[in-house]
Fold this protein.
Amino acid sequence: MVELLRTVLCVDDDVDDRDLVCDTIFEIDPHIKVVQAENGIEAIEYLSKAQIKGDLPCLVILDINMPQMGGKETLAAIKEDNELNDLPVVIFSTSNNVIDKHYCNNYGVKFITKPNTILAMRKEIEGLLRHCGDA
């Protein structure tokens, strides 16, 4: 039996943070493919192509502070698209700003401040991967 590959889109301008998230996901479940984007523009381009192919990710992990197109703008674009608005999105950021948290709450999106230990990071990501089932 062939296992269906699930995809997570990780959007963060910090390559070290992206790599840490990707490595942690691979350790938890090596059957999950992680696609990386450096900003919201790349994320929306990827989602548009995935939408056409009928291959949307099971989860978008989105940083909030990024150049060109930040997390807030990306989140708004996803939630305002009728075909993407049900896509699970989680804001995963170093920000602890109450205004950012309220912004995310308005879209019904969970806001998680990035943990500062590997163990805590793994625990958070395990919780996030529940959106992908079987993880």
Observations:
- The two ends are 18 Å apart (CA to CA).
